[in-house]
Amino acid sequence: MWLKPEEILLKNAFKLWVTEKGNDYFVLQRRRGYGEGAGGLTGLLVGTLDTMLDSTSKVAPFRILHQTPDSQVYWSIACGGTKEEISQHWEWLEKNIMRTLSVFDSSDDITSFVQGKIRGLIAEEGKVSCGQEDDPEKFREALLRFEKWFDLPQKEKLVTYYSCSYWRGRVPCQGWLYLSTNFLSFYSYLLGSEVKLVISWNEIWRLEKTSNVILAESIHVLANGEDHFFSMFLHLNETFLIMEQLADYSIKRLFDKETFQEVPSLSDPLQITKRGLEMHARNEQFRAFFRLPKEENLMEVYESFLWVPFSHFNTLGKICLSESYLCFASQDGSQCHVIIPMREVIGVEKPDRSSRALTVCVRGKRALRFSEVRDFERLANAIRRRCGITASPQHSASTEVTCVNCTFSLGVSNFAVNYEEVALMVGQKDSSKAVSTEALMTVFHPQDTENMDPKMLKEKMKEQSWNIHFSEYGRGTSMFCTKKTRDLIVRGVPEALRGELWMLFSGAVNDMATNPGYYSELVDQSLGTSTLATDEIERDLHRSLPEHPAFQSDTGISALRRVLTAYAYRNPKIGYCQAMNILTSVLLLYAKEEEAFWLLVAICERMLPDYFNRRIIGALVDQAVFEELIRMHLTQLTEHMTDLSFFSSVSLSWFLTLFISVLPIESAVNVVDCFFYDGIKAILQLGLAVLDYNMEGLISSNDDAEAVTILNKFFDNVTNKDSPLPQTVQQNSVGNNNKASSLLKVDISDLIKEAYEKFGDMKSEEVESMRKRNKLYVIQTLEDTTKQNVLRVVSQEVKFSASQLDDLYALFKRQHFLSCYWTMNSPVLLHHDPSLAYLEQYQLGFEQFSLLFSLLEPWSLCSGKDAFFLWAFRLLDENQDGLINFREFCCALDILYSGTLTNKLKFLFKLHQPPGKITMSNISDESVIRRSPERGKLVNFSFYFTRLLTSIPIQAISTNSFVGKVDLQAYLKQWQDEILKKEESIKDLPRINQAQFIQFSKTLYNLFHGDPEEESLYHAVARVTSLLLRMEEVGRRLQEPASPLKSTTSHTQALLEGSSSVPQEIEWSFAFEQILASLLNEPVLVRFFERPVDIPARLDHAKGSQLKAKTNM
Q1: Which of 619, 759, 991, 1036 has CB 3.0 to 4.6 Å from 685, enough for a Cys bridge?
Q2: What residue stretches are annotated with the EF-hand domain (predicted)?
Q3: Which among 747, 767, 749 has a CA at the least distance from the CA of 757?
């Protein structure tokens, strides 16, 4: 069958393939182990591996590659299962393609033609197969095998499955790879040997495609310190993309606590499908490439040619249609793309049916002509429907004339008209009186049009270059973006056009156009509010470009306050993060206040995702990408400095502030120009150029401090010789020592140009792929750091060994995730607060605590388990928030595993007193569960309490008292008291009353179930109970001689029988010392509580049973 052309690496492939036929442009190859000449060691090995593969998934034995005579690059274009099938493809190429290729002059044209033709063939074949779904019967069979082999909860959703080989050392195991919502699973059974593997997506550190000597390509998975390799896929790229999407979905859902409310296909983990994942990935890629709002989804795609009037040629590409935008991106290397908002379209015509063409007319007397559109009538109707345009004959005739005239009238005379329409298009309207309507640079440094010094003349020349560009390529959102556009950006944007172009290239112009008045409403709602974010904003306001005149006045400070406060109000998940003030202050210099707000939205939510949060994950990921690029491009530097973590610490501010914090403002804005056009790729390129420029100094440096000094001196000497700004506006970079430097001055334009020339060949797609590959590792590294911090704190309070604590943490964390795997409404997800300390990041609600505690508690409770776990949960929940953290959990286990007899009895004693045991008097008290985050289950939870312990009707329990607000000051005070509190004395414990004592005795009975000395233990408890009661009666008779012994006996009997008619005048209680002294008189009880616990065995049992416990719920 025909394959989508993909570049392949033949470095190791010649060991696996034999060339059968070849010419100047195509090669037909046979895989070793098939057909003639299948002998030899290599042939036997390859043949053996391939015969183990399932017929639907094994590597095809024949393939055709495309190559031009003067190129070393090969492209796979076809594969076949038989010699006859591949020969048909070969014959078709010889008859239909070979004769045509001789007319082309360049190799690139030949490759583009072949790729386009193959894609066309695939599209034709797709018309027949697009309506066919995966065989539901086969999927049902696979689902049954999946459930049988892995014994996962039935709620676990199988997404897809593939036949592949899993490598155990140098031996491949042929089997099936199952990809579900939360797990990667593999099963193989050959010759009596079973291989079973289950890996949670949230446990994966690395996921990447690799190649080695034996296999050309495989998928490498690093999880829990172990490497796993999977190979022999028929569609390896498809498999890898699905795995990558599932891993990313798991990371966002479990670590970032994202709920995907705006993505219906991913909002329910029980309904995840392969198609939904692919659609989500496609939409994200579409929005990122064209910088569109997050509400836009890719609806339809058409291949076509676009007539480029200024270059007088047709460029091949794809039309991408969403609900509100028509976008085009070339695929022939011309780097041309254009975005047309539907709000700007005024007509759609079909002037030439023979060429399957249509013309889209937009405001500003402009038109775009698309040709060779396969389903051009459907496209035309789709555009009309989205724009509300009718195709009446009168409308068609008049519009067609307008379109024909305007296609060739894109002259300079239209410049003023276009700019006015751009202003209308972005929805500018009368803003709130509090909102500034001018860029600060316009207010504090108005351009003097009569000033004709050399710098101003050069600035005018730049403006004229851009005006010519506008006349040829258009202006506003429907402007063509090409190589020439990037060249102008690299040379520097004129001061007067900077704000407009930032809005255009970032996509903020579209956000602002579709949300008129939104910013003014946010300002009205947010000003005057007092939050942690607003306090931090006020603290940093006067640290934002303090040397610039605009921020030495109330005008600039007030505008900065409004923008930052409005954004914190809009996006409380981010709120405010340091470095946002520096970025926003620069945006306000060149953009109006509302425009600066939307530029900040574009940066934080689209162009630099996950940069501005508590863990700055996005910046750390890009630093990991930066390190990878350093190894690829600056090998001389990596040979000298094997540990590149130094560059991560140095470059953090480069990424967070787009070099604004290290470069003078007049130079930094040129970097921001490139960033808004090329995204993070521009920052990575510039970072490489800076290191490359200082290569000699960095190599000769003796330590990190000297290397930092070299880089700081370099940044201090970066200038912008073309900047028209006066010295009062120009600023020194942060860290400038204001001393004359002996280093040569470096012009920012030359530095940026060098960055594009040396490192501009990297593609945005490659950068995104590297981001995804490194994100897993960065997040897991942060998680590991958090774990080490938690274990360091907890280890000081418990007697567990380091390895035991590590195992306990893994069990606790996994139990936390188990509460999130199959629902978006988990309490720990809904009430997750990323600002909490690392001890509070992973917590368990009562249900999850019960499951894990039941696997780890050292005794075999025969009955009353639920009550015991409930009392333990309430006792450990020190802050009464309905959640248990790892420290609280470990301290309880430490008492039960390694505590003394006294400590174990004290724990059991306190279980039966508030807040442990719930009595009739305190079950309605709002302190019981008022702050429990499990709000969706409160009524059922309370009913559970009452059914378990009392006979109070459910109507008596009010849910109004369950809603509470955590007092931050109280929380901090409690934490301080916790640190300072002394060891609790047994004399400090309150006395246990009669009902509590009876329940305490019952609990002791339940602990002994299954013990070898069970009967002796029962008798011992009976003797202790009898002794305590007699002691109490003796004391009572000494105080009240008239009190008969019979009263105590009847009272105790009534309690045991659960009777409510108990004489109220009889009250007795015991102190802990009395109970302890009585128990110490029974050697069998002492042996029971002092018996050592096999902690490794309990941990191993919990590891093996954790998922099954969830399954059997």
Answers
A1: 759
A2: 864-899
A3: 749
